[in-house]
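Please check this record.
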Amino acid sequence: MKKYEISFPKQETRVITCKSIHYVREIRKVFPDKTELFLLTDRNVFSLYNEHIRQFINSFSKLIVEVIPPGERSKNMSNLKKILNKLAEKGFSRNTLFVTMGGGVIGDIGGLSASIYMRGVDLIHIPTTLLSQIDSAFGGKTAVNLSYGKNLAGSFHNAKLILLNNEYLTTHNNRLWIEGLAEMIKYAVGFDKMLFLELEDFLLSSQNFNEVNWDKWIEKCYKLKMSICLEDPDEKSNRVLLNIGHTIGHALEKLKQFRLSHGKSVLFGIIEEAKISRKFHFLSIEEEQRIVNLINSREFLKIRLRPSLESITANIKWDKKRRDINMLFPVIDSIGSSHIEYIKLDKLIKLILSKD
């Protein structure tokens, strides 16, 4: 069992790697006096890991398990209202523990619910996907989508406890691997050349996914994210770098009405933003090609999308990194290094549309 703690200005976040049979014990250590627990999950997780949820039944005097449909399209105002009304209807107080058990969607909408119910209740994440274990469960971002774009209504609300368990990776399908690997490649491209080399060795080989020490990479990624978030908890400066691949990726998701997976969208975004970084005269054409080769290294990861870049740029104006007519845009200097460019939005759009 591994434990890791990081102190944000207003609270500490504890990260514990443990098996599911120890969930209640670890929660009780951190919250010995809590008696009310509200657990949010989705239908897929509830079906696969019902026994993990059942252990909470006799441990809290008040317990509700709320199950919503899986997928990005569930991250909406209607479901947010439903969750908040259920909390109020069942009489949950400010002494409530709000637990999310699922991937990024559950963590985002659950975190937002916890942040605004009675002006904030304690939050615990049990992330069940590679993406959420290395990225979305950390840093306190919460959100739902609006008709105009992704994650436009949200808040910052850090979990006080995050429970990691790699047994959830054993039930991953290709879509979930894509979601997680997209974020892992983002970390490698933007911050950690050694991680990039390790991913090259793995993905360009015929090594199976069950032969990899995922715990090592998971820990490396979430610690990297937490260190950046500690320096910039409200995303005013360097935290923007965690959006490599997401400016174009989120615009593509909106264009496809959230029917295209986040992972495929981000991988497409990394390729296009590497191209933009080369047009800025930072990234070399050789390193750009290495990034493309890594993303296309396995058949199920390959990007075959050919969306209209003109249609994508129409959605970029709703990006949260926009500042009036300017954009904070993460640029890749070289593999493992990046910086922020403060660029006029119309200039960025011209770069995206310009021919090589």
